Amino acid sequence: MAFSFQNYGTFSGPGAQYTFRQNDDFTNIFEDPTFNLDDVSMVLLSTPSDYVYLHLDGTSTANVTLEKNVGKISQFFVDATTSYFNGNVTIDQNLNVLGSATILGSLNVTGAISGPTITGLTGAINNKKSFDIPHPTKENHRLRYICLEGPRAEVYLRGKLINQSIIELPDYWRELVDAETIGVTLTPVGSYQELYVEKVEWGTHITIKNSAGGAINCTYVVYGERKDTSRNIPEYEGTSPKDYPGDNREYSINSGNKTWT
Fold first, then answer.
1. Which residues contact 20 (CB under 8 A, 6 or more apart)?
2. What residue ranges do the domains of the chain occupy?
3. Burial (CB count <10 Å: 0-12, 13-18, 19+), residue 260
4. Are the C-beta atoms of 216 and 165 separated by less than 8 Å?
């Protein structure tokens, strides 16, 4: 069986007994066998209680939606050699890659990415690992931490010094880390040592001294705040991550069961 949908072609299937018109909504869609559409749409009908429809928002062609009548579509399967998206892609949950993924634009992921390889990335993956929760002590405030679950976007380096006094920092730290934010934690090993940081030079190496004059045997952790991104604002007034006063595009936020970009 087949029927004509005014101005938009011919359709066939179990819904052929229904008459489609324009300029209405889906209210009581299957209670009245004659119903109208408020925008350009297509209904994929299995039974009167199980259908999906592809539609616009009634105002323009800018937003196209594919949705099920009740709940979520369990699987959207495209059997194609190549699926091409010319623009940004936002994934609101997890992205599972079974093969390789080639990204030509930017990819905003608020869940987890898993899979063998992601290649050809010419845009950016915006994914600062962080959490954003209601403030534990201030009403109408929120708290945002970045991994390593601290208020600042920092990198760290750790290692050992045995009979040495210089910590050599990676060369790329000069462009990655604000030298004024570098801090060092020293832990003596084997015996008490009066260790201290004598100087940090050019953000490239750190000189350690032992006041007691003995040999140096210690572990160290060096922290530095990244300068290639905007400073995180750990406390701010608001009721959701959307109230963050900084640039939310730099973050992938896990806030309970909800993700935000």
1. 3, 5, 6, 35, 36, 37
2. 2-68, 89-126, 128-150+229-260, 154-225
3. middle
4. yes
205-238 pLDDT tens trace: 999 999 988 899 999 999 999 888 889 999 999 9
Residues 151, 231 contacting (CB under 8 angstroms):
no
SS3 string of 209-255? EECCCCCCEEEEEEEEEECCCCCCCCEEECCCHHHCCCCHHHEEEEE
Q: Residue 222: which of 162, 181, 191, 194 has the closest Cα? A: 181
Strands 34-37 and 19-22 turn out to be parallel
- Yes or no: say if 110 and 128 are a contact pair by the CB < 8 Å rule: no
Beta-ladder partners of 230: none
Residues 182/203, Cβ–Cβ less than 8 Å? yes
**Mean per-residue pLDDT, 55-80:** 78
Positive/negative CA dihedral, 91, 94, 97, 100:
positive
- Whether the CB-CB separation of 185 and 206 falls below 8 Å is answered with no
Model pTM score: 0.47
Structure tokens at 215: 């040999």
**Mean pLDDT score, 196-212:** 92
Residues 175 and 228: beta-carbon distance below 8 Å = yes
Q: What residue type is 95 in one-letter code?
A: L
